[in-house]
Amino acid sequence: MAFEATKKEWGELYAFFRLLADGHVCAGTPDCKKNESQCIPVAMVQREEHDGTRQYIVENEEIHIVGEKIDKRVPREDFGIVADLVFQAMKNSRENEVTSPDGVEEFLDEVAIFDLEAKTDDRTDFSVAFYDASAPLVGFCVRSRLGLMIPLIDGGRTANFKFEQTGVKFAGPTVNKINAEGEEDDVTSRMLMIERLGGVLKYSDVADKVFRSNLAMIDLHLARVLAEMTRLMWLDGMTKVTDLTAEIKKINPLKIKDELINKHGYYEFKIKEFLLALATGMRPAKLYNGTDSAIAGFFFVTAEGEVLCYQRAWRQNFVDFLFNNSRFEKGSTEKDKYGYLERENNVYYFKLNLKIGLLKR
User: Which residues are CB-contacts of 254 (< 8 A; sequence separation ≥ 6)?
Assistant: First the structure.
């Protein structure tokens, strides 16, 4: 009997089956190509189900599945066949919900997979032992260009920046007129109207004190840089992190020396450090102290079905991938509570929201 699941759920399953079928994984380059010279064997994949932990041990011709209530072997080629069926189903569907191909549900029962998305508390999708099944486990998340990708930072009220409205003092009716300008998510129109009426939006602070401190762990002035990049996204239409960083270098909001900008690559370095922190577990509302989380990297599924590995062990490659393939995104103004003039202690503030995701292509 066929069932439906999201492309995100199928993407996680596809990457899992592809690793078991291939028995190895190659590093991805910063531009999402396979690096054939940097491939490592996959010895075992550990995955959590609602009824316990499963270990899928890669042998020459078989996958040895071991769990609390299971101990069996399944031909490795079967995982490859099912992976191809899943890939084709995702690629051929324009909808986010994809119907299971013939035979897939029966195979999932055979290999004891009942949850398409693994049940973990540490935000990993599954863990991998490289080279040898007794090697330390490394936690990974799956990101797939075949479906919707979870953002690196998914906005939320705690990821808002506050800009103080200065220049002129607006009367109440003017504020109401500004806030009524354009459609609900038309933040740009309201920002431009403030400018036309003589107002200036001056960066003030991070709305949430935990996120403010988290950003300060990377750099005391990182919040100002990210706020300016967010402002540029709305006013100039730029979204790619590479383009926004290039513009920030010209604007130089921190007024640092040219040598630090161009010879040391200050702004690029700080943004890469921030993206790496996000990719490996930093969240706006949760205290971040720099300690490594269980997430050590990504398995990235390309539009062609290649599964590429990016991990902390290949640090420079990982940060370059994140830098080259990330973009600023626009979240819901209603959900994230930003994009309007709001009064606090007789001062008007305009909030902008930080949301960053991976490029779809």
Answer: 221, 224, 225
The closest of 329, 358, 317, 296 to 144, measured between CA atoms, is 358
Any residues with CB less than 8 A from the CB of 113 and at least 6 apart, and which? 13, 47, 49, 54
pTM: 0.94
CA dihedral (230, 236, 237, 239) positive or negative: negative
Extract the tokens encoding 305: 């079905």
Q: Which helix (H) or strand (E) holds 246?
A: helix 241-251
Q: What is the CA 265 to chain-centroid distance, rounded?
A: 24
- Quote the CA–CA distance of 322 and 31 in Å, as a whole number: 10
pLDDT digits (tens, 9 = 90+) for 162-217: 999 999 999 999 999 999 998 888 999 999 999 999 999 999 999 999 999 999 99
The token pair that represents 165 in the structure block: 């409205």
Nearest residue to 28 via CA among 316, 352, 242, 252? 316
